[in-house]
Amino acid sequence: MSLEVDVLKPAIGAKVRLDRSAIGDSAVSQELLMLLERHTVLVFPRIGLTDPQQLALTDALGERVNIAARVPGRGGADAVYQVTLNKGAKIEPEYVLGTFFWHMDGLTVDVPPPKATVLSARRLAPKGGQTEFASTKAAYAALPPEEKRELEGVRVYHTVTASVREFCPPEGLDDARRAMGREHPLVWTRRDGTKSLIIGSTADRVIGMSQAEGRALLSRLLEWTAQPAFTYRHCWEEGDCVIWDNTSALHRVIPYAADSGRMMHRTALAGVESAA
Predict the structure, then answer these.
(1) Model pLDDT for residues 120-138, shown as the tens digit of each residue
(2) CATH number assigned to the domain covering 4-269
(3) With contact defined as beta carbons under 8 Å apart, do 47 and 241 qualify?
């Protein structure tokens, strides 16, 4: 079957009409993966997935990974990760507040970064809570050739402490989270040869550069990537589901009140390519 698709912006985003009954159909799954590669962000308006249906959609697209379970002390994390500031939630508020800043998922845990993230809106905030996406694939492609050459081989160390440094000092985290970090190439190369930038709030330092020089480079690339031509803001409706290519897109949420009740359910596809 052929899915009904509306392109949202040339560089990023497409709206897809998917009938829940088609989840698990191999032809539909392959078409969705091709659309994800082409558009980076796929929006499924008001599809209203239950948790089992979201898990089934995730599994139909590839191997599932529970990145929350890779965080020290969270080995028993649920298969569907609840992103919320609600009191009593299993997720630490520092992690949720960190989503207010441009980032990619899973860059500090001991598995390859997820191939894609699946996020469903269960309850919305009265104000704020929209999610913005920025294509690091389109941003890289638009760089001048000489700058692309300069970035080849550059590597960046990503940490949890960097991801919360705007609002939480290192001593505000426990020892395990302060120790979490992983090195990644600044330019991510896929098996098909396409490339994207691996940047965002977790980027702590550039290997082999002074802190000032490295942070300035990362800041310039972030500003370049976040320009309007490469970005899309999704204004959620209850029941929406969005899937994005995690190593091709930064994302961040527009801040919302801690007592808003906002609740999002997240699953992820395992990374399939080397970080080398």
Answers:
(1) 999 999 999 999 999 999 9
(2) 3.60.130.10
(3) yes
